[in-house]
Structure formats: C-alpha cells, structure tokens
Amino acid sequence: MKDNKVVVEFKDVVKEYGEGEGRQIAVNHVDFAINEGEFVVILGQSGAGKSTVLNMLGGMDTPSSGTIIVDGKEVSAMNDKKLSEYRADTIGFVFQFYNLIPSLTAYENVALTKSIVKDALDPMEMLDRVGLKGHAKKFPSQMSGGEQQRVSIARALAKNPKIILGDEPTGALDSETGVTVLKLLTEMSNKYGNTVILVTHNADIAKCADKVIRMKNGKIREVKIDEKPLSVEEVDW
C-alpha cells in the first residue's frame, strides 16, 4: 500500500475549447485524487480527454473551471510565471517521441536540466540509473528508440521531480523495448517514491498500476484501486 498522503486533486474540473456551435468539452466535470508514490494509469481511447487532463496537471494548459491542487498548491489559480516555476520544480515529463535535442549527446541532453533546476541531480548518475552510462557520448541518431526514451526518462529524473508524467511513453516502441521502459517507470514509483502518472490506451499497462482512472468522452467512468498490481514481468505482452 502506497502512502495515503494526497498529492494530486482534481475537483469538478472542466476544459472547454471554442465558443458557440463550435464549443467542445474535452474534460467534463472530472474529480479524482492521487496519493504520493502511486503508479497511476489514466486509460482511454483517443479523444477520451486523458491527454487534456495530463496537460492541465503538467501546467501546460489551464481548466475552464474547477480546481487542480498539487502538493497543497492550487495550480489552477497560478499565473504564467508561477506555472513556469511549477513545471520546473515539480513535474518531470516523458513524451511519446522523446523530444531530445539532436545536436547534443545523451549526457548533454540530461545536463540541460541544470539550466532549469538549480538542484538538478547528476546527469551521469541518472544515465546509470536507466542503464545508459556507457552511452553518455552518443547522439540521439546513434541510439535506438528505446535508448532515446531512456535518455528522456533520465532527463526527467534529473529534475528530481515530485511527479513524473508520461504521455503514451511506450507508444512508439516495440513491445520488448516498451516493457524495458515501463519497468523503469514502475521502479520510479516502487523504489524511489516518485508519483508516476501515465496516459495510455493500452489496457495491459493498466495491469501494473496502483490506480486506474478510466476516461471516455471527457468523463471518468471508473477509478479502480489495485492493492496488488502485477509486476511488468507478470503481464502477458
């Protein structure tokens, strides 16, 4: 059982785009809570609203109404400057397509965090944690997709974030490589105590989660807590 301290709260959150006849409700009166150290999967098909939830949680978008609280701070009330500080200090991002800078080595890509966070962790130690210490001098073009994704995880970890957000982080990888990346992400929760929140349409990944938030048409259909989630090795991929 993970820590029962609530670190994320969505209270009656709505996100609308457009006006009049073109108005679309991407997130429709959503409520949920996530505890510190949990490995959480937000599950749903394309258009379910899950990426919009993740973007609001990451401070990259703001709700039309409702309240988002992270670690006791009301993110939904922050101005642009405060949101920028929040993204830098609290959130580590892992994207589907890595977002590495091609002209920088693996080490340099991870070391970029030092320009964002003053207490950034050692880049080489983070590369070692994801099993890529020997790839420090390689450029992204010299690495496989799985290796590039592991560099992006090392970069996220170097910020020493309270929360790691992943947007389909295994979506561009083959199943074997995806399993390797998923093992790293579950380890961040189970071994190091980070709160890890992934959005995906892959129901198999949900089998490894402490909590699964199922979304459809902008609404939450179910919140399921699993006291004994499967390990990544136990899932039939």
Task: Write a short abstract of this structure.
With 237 residues, the chain is an alpha/beta fold.
Q: Ranges with pLDDT <50 over ≥5 residues?
A: none
In order across it, which strands form the biggest sheet? 6-7-8-3-9-10
Broad structural category: alpha/beta
- Please tally the helical runs, counting DSSP H or I stretches of 4 or more residues: 7
Question: Biggest β-sheet: count, sense, barrel?
Answer: 6 strands, mixed
Notes on the protein architecture:
This protein has 237 residues and is of the alpha/beta class. The protein has helices spanning 50-57, 80-90, 106-111, 123-129, 145-158, 175-190, 203-206; strands spanning 6-17, 24-35, 39-43, 65-70, 73-74, 91-94, 163-167, 195-200, 211-216, 219-225. A six-stranded mixed beta sheet has the order 6-7-8-3-9-10. Strands 2-1-4-5 form a four-stranded antiparallel beta sheet, covered by helices on one side. Helix 6 (175-190) links the parallel strand 7 (163-167) and strand 8. The chain is globular and about 50 Å long. The two termini are 25 Å apart. The model has no long low-confidence stretch (mean pLDDT 92).
